[in-house]
Here is the input.
Amino acid sequence: MFITTRIASSVSRTLVGLITFVGILHMSIPPANAKELVYAYDFESGTLEGLGYNHAGNGNAPSITSSNVRHGKYAMKSYVNRTTSEYFNRTEATPLISGGVGYHFAYSEDYWVGFSTFLPHDYKESDVWELIAQWHAVNDTNLGEARRPPPLALETSRGIWTIVSRWDSKANTFLNGAAKYGGKMRRDINPVADDKGRWVDWVFHVKFSWKSDGVLQVWKSGELVVDHNGPNAYNDKTPPYFKMGVYLGWPNRQCCANVPTEKAVFHDELRVMRGSDVTYEDMAPPGGTSKSKVAPSPPSPPSPPSISTTE
Here is the structure.
């Protein structure tokens, strides 16, 4: 009887411990469908409602157009003229959340961003840098840190579609007075001339981190063109936020005698999701490349990007 009681007591304690362990394990497992729609803009309201085009640093206000549309009736047009626009080098918009502030992409979290771009037939290439989408960094001014290029950008610089990523694990990139980055990745894709006059669909899967757990995957019209694991962010207190439009490397109105004086870029079908279960199919714009035509990890990986550990 004494032995039986001891065994029963031992079994009871074991079951309690097992139940407790299973409970803790269950709480640590993320939801079965870890997907969250952060925001979406298809511009079908015919307005720029919800977009911070007057947000600090965005320059001129974009406009709504029906002339070049990816899906539906309307899209966003970003136009800038170096000689006549109020702001000579940028026209961008920042999606806003409650309180009228930009949404910041939390570090070490899976985010997916999909949007489409259109460069008209008369789009002129130039040698200055050009950004048509970027994740804007928030420098730590309390540490004396100055502004830096974005940690992630889609460029048309030099007439080539390019993905550029920068990172730094230091709290202050200007620690010794001059900017010194931890590294940079540059992936040239193809000449923009190949895509003039047609919509190009972009899907970004990014997990921002200045550590080894960073993730960056980019699809261009269904083709995986960037697949990079490792650091891809600055060590800033506030994470980056998204902007799209056109931002040019014109230093002033009188510059660049051999460079076109105006640029126009169109954007449509912006969608941002967050979560470990989001897939390419969730992000592809209406009528875009289906999952049956694209795989997260294709048999032939993209050409290796240019990566430098210091800059």
User: Anything to note?
Assistant: The radius of gyration is 23 Å.
